[in-house]
């Protein structure tokens, strides 16, 4: 058994020190909500025996050639055995932040296997139905929805994709009808980006986790208990981290989308955590703006009781 497998089996709280002196210990395990990082921008929430997935992506397609160049026509394929192994319990809901392959790829298989419902924008619905997802399984959202799942709620917020070197990004585009079945990673277009807040009783987790950009006015004043924040590709987004923290003032900060995306889950070389610079940036930013938040730098596939 590997070290990682041992850790996967343990449910524990591990919070990297952060925030202001005297800040209350937050990850107390008292909320009844547990969170697990699936790698890349994938997350799983577990509460009251119910499960919600966000952008599950365990296949980690090796989309870079030997020279490190991105292969834009890399064929789509799901590592179903990894999904079976790690996502064996039924999620009742899957939240899609946008249409890109590293967010949407595995959702059709999860729906086929478990019959889960999905929330996404219109383009995401077309991409999913083109891959065999029944239209009735997809709840189309745009922004402002506050959906009651009777025991928890989901709020949907319009968001933005990360903007890279030339202020653009890979595979933009929107769809108004189902396309031919997607074959390569370029076929899974962004189709708009969304953020989600899941609230269980009075405990809320805000997932601005799929991209490293957002609409500040959409999220201002939300005050979630936990903010899961995309932490790569924001060099050209003005004051990215501080604006997100000031707007939401979460008590616990968790980095997302901060690993190499390609090292396989069953590769012993897979680091336990993502880029340590992501948690460090959250910690430093919270300190700089005087926010008494703690930072959780999660181990991949490990459950944390919030
Ligand atoms: Zn993307």
From TrEMBL:
A Pfam family per the record: Lactamase_B_3
Q: Which first-to-last residue range defines the signal peptide?
A: none
SUPFAM superfamilies attached here?
Metallo-hydrolase/oxidoreductase
Where does the record place the Metallo-beta-lactamase domain? Answer: 39-257
Q: What is this protein called?
A: L-ascorbate metabolism protein UlaG (Beta-lactamase superfamily)
